[in-house]
């Protein structure tokens, strides 16, 4: 299952980098090309949403079928208790990665549409300035 988390982390990283590049000031000359590249990448990145839902269901299934190992229970050894705590920490980390990936996708989609709208408005104002 580690490969799925690497893919998800890479997707989240790519989304974050695209957001940074789109919102970074001073890249006005590259903005049109960046906007085109990000718009092209948005559709394949949409596959992240069902992938995240699948991984979230996997976390839930593991949580429901996990043997309980409470601290006060005498049936638990120290090693079992430690393994149980590590499993909980991994599940929490993975859930945070899922949330970050979905948030970055939503931000990327929103920022891309805002930047595209801004570019259209700039073109209109330039067109109106030339007419006057």
Automatic annotation (TrEMBL):
InterPro entries cross-referenced by the UniProt entry? BAP29/BAP31 (IPR008417)
Q: Which PANTHER family match?
A: BCR-ASSOCIATED PROTEIN, BAP, ENDOPLASMIC RETICULUM TRANSMEMBRANE PROTEIN
Species this protein is from: Rhynchospora tenuis
**What subcellular compartments does it reside in?**
Endoplasmic reticulum membrane
Its function, per the record, reads: May play a role in anterograde transport of membrane proteins from the endoplasmic reticulum to the Golgi.
In terms of superkingdom, the source organism counts as Eukaryota
* Upper lineage: Eukaryota, Viridiplantae, Streptophyta, Embryophyta, Tracheophyta
Membrane-crossing residues? 6-24, 45-63, 95-116
Q: What is this protein called?
A: Endoplasmic reticulum transmembrane protein
The UniProt similarity line reads: Belongs to the BCAP29/BCAP31 family.
Annotated membrane topology is: Multi-pass membrane protein
Sorted alphabetically, the Gene Ontology BP terms of this entry are:
endoplasmic reticulum to Golgi vesicle-mediated transport; intracellular protein transport; protein localization to endoplasmic reticulum exit site
Statement: the UniProt record of this protein carries the keyword Transmembrane: yes
State the UniProt keywords alphabetically: Endoplasmic reticulum, ER-Golgi transport, Membrane, Protein transport, Transmembrane, Transmembrane helix, Transport
The GO cellular component terms are: endoplasmic reticulum membrane
């Amino acid at each position: 299952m580690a490969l799925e988390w690497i893919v998800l982390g890479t997707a989240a990283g790519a989304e974050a980098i695209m957001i940074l590049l789109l919102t970074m000031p001073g890249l006005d000359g590259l903005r049109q090309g960046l906007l085109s590249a990000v718009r092209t990448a948005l559709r394949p990145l949409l596959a992240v949403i069902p992938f995240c839902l699948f991984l979230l269901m996997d976390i839930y299934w593991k949580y429901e079928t996990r043997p309980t190992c409470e601290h006060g229970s005498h049936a638990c050894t120290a090693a079992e208790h430690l393994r149980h705590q590590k499993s909980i920490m991994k599940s929490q980390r993975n859930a945070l990665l899922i949330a970050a990936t979905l948030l970055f996708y939503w931000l990327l989609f929103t920022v891309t549409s805002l930047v595209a709208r801004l570019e259209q408005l700039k073109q209109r104002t330039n067109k109106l300035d030339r007419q006057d």
